[in-house]
Amino acid sequence: MSGGGAGRSAAAAARRAARLLAVLGCVLTAEAQLTGVLDDCLCDIESIDDFNTFKIFPKIQKLQERDYFRYYKVNLKRPCPFWADDGHCSIKDCHVEPCPEYSKAANNSKELEDCEQANKLGAVNSTLSNQSKEAFIDWARYDDSQDHFCELDGLCLEKRVFYKLISGLHASINLHLCANYLLEETWGKPRWGPNVKEFTRRFDPMETKGEGPRRLKNLYFLYLIELRALSKVAPYFERSVVDLYTGNGHEDAESKALLLDIFRDTKSFHMHFDEKSMFAGDKKGAKSLKEEFRLHFKNISRIMDCVGCDKCRLWGKLQTQGLGTALKILFSEKEIQSLPENSPSKGFQLTRQEIVALVNAFGRLASNFYLTGSEIEYPAGT
User: Fold this and answer.
1) CA 254, 258, 259 angle in degrees (round to 5)?
2) What burial letters (b/e) apply to 95-113, b meaning 16+ CB within 10 Å?
3) Does the pLDDT at position 249 exceed 90?
4) 322: exposed, middle or buried (C-beta count within 10 Å: 0-12, 13-18, 19+)?
C-alpha cells in the first residue's frame, strides 16, 4: 500500500489552485453567464459561491492541515480490470517520487529543491519516517478496535443525479488540471502554471458546443450533494465516543471541534438538495434503482485503477471514495439518527479512510469556488 500525503503541501497547493481557478472561473462566468438556478434543486449558483467563500472554504482548508486528514492509505498498484495497462505515464512528473530524508538531502540543494517542488505540484508524499510509521500502527490498532460498516450506497431523477455527479467529478479534475498544467518539459525543470487555452477547450461554450457551462453546473451540483452529506452526518460525530484519533489528545480535540463547527455552518445553508426525492417509488423499484446506482458507482471506482498517472490515480481514488461516502451518508439518515450516544455504532459506521476521503474530496470542490484577489501570471501564448 502507498501512503498519500494530503497535508500542508496539499493545502498550499489548494490555495494556489484556488487563486488560479478564481481567475479561470471569472473568465467562464463572464463568457458563459454561469448564473441562476441549478436543475433538479432550488438553489442558485450565486448563493453557493457566497456561502462557500465566506463560510466554508477557510475552515475546511484549515481542517485539511490537521494530521488526521493529512494521510490517505491507497493501493496504487492494483491492476486495471478492464484492459491491459502497464500503469506507467509517459510524463515523469506524473509519478509519486519518494523524497530523501531531509538531513541527507540538505547537502544536495538541487535534490532538495526538486523534492519540495514535486510535493508542491502533486501534493503527494510517499515517504514515511519511523516515527510516522509507529504512529500509523497505533492509529490502525485504535481503528481496529472500533466496529465498521462498510458498503457504498449507491437512477428518471436518479439517473440524472448519477450522471451529474460523475460529470461534476470530471469537471473538478479538469479545472485543477487547467489551473496547474505542465506547460513545458525541457532538459531543465518542468514549467507548470495555468493554461487558459486548455481551459477554453474544455469549458468555453463555443468550443464545447454549449456543453462547458453544463459541466460547470454539474460541478456545483456535486458540491451540493457533498455539502448535504456533511450537514446530515453531524449526529454521528457529535457523540462522545467518536474522536479523530492521532495520539495527540489536544490536537484531536481541536480537530473535532473544528469539524463540528463546519457541520453547524453546513446546516445553516438554506438551499440544500433534497435527497428524499430519490428512490421514492415503490419499494421493489426503488431497491432495483439503488442497486443499479451502487453497481455503476463501483465501476467508476474500479476505472481509477486504469489511470496511468500516480498523482491522478491517488486524487481520483480519494475523490471517488469521498463521493461514495457522501452517498452512503445520505442514504443512511435513519441509521444515523438512531445511533446510541455512549456505545459503539450499530447500523452505521465511518472508517478513518472514509472520513479522510470525505473531508479532502469536499475541500477539493470548495477550492474550485473560493475567490481571492490575487494576481495571476498567465502563461505565454494564451
Assistant:
1) 115
2) bbbebeeeeebeeeeeebe
3) yes
4) buried
Grid cell of 33 as nine digits: 453567464
Closest CA to 236 of 139, 332, 359, 318: 332
Count CA atoms within 13 Å of residue 317 on its CB side: 23
∠ CA 51-57-60, rounded to 5°: 130
Confidence of residue 190 (pLDDT cuts 50, 70, 90): confident
- Kindly report the length of the chain: 382
Which residues, including other chains, have CB under 8 Å from residue 289's CB and lie 6 or more apart? 155, 156, 158, 279, 281
In angstroms, the CA 207 to CA 200 distance is 7
Q: Is 50 exceeded by the pLDDT of residue 260?
A: yes
Hey, what's the cell of 205? 461554450
pLDDT tens, position by position, 165-174: 989 988 888 8
What is residue 208's predicted lDDT score, i.e. its pLDDT?
A: 86
pLDDT digits (tens, 9 = 90+) for 30-65: 344 577 788 777 788 888 988 999 999 999 999 999
- Integer CA distances (angstroms), 19 to 95, 239, 330, in order: 25, 37, 31
Amino acid at 371: L
Q: Which residues contact 167 (CB under 8 A, 6 or more apart)?
A: 214, 215, 218
What are the Cα distances from residue 372, in Å, to 223, 285, 309? 19, 47, 30
CB burial class (10 A; 0-12, 13-18, 19+) of residue 11? buried
Residue bearing cell 465511518: 350
Residue 106, all three cell numbers: 540538505
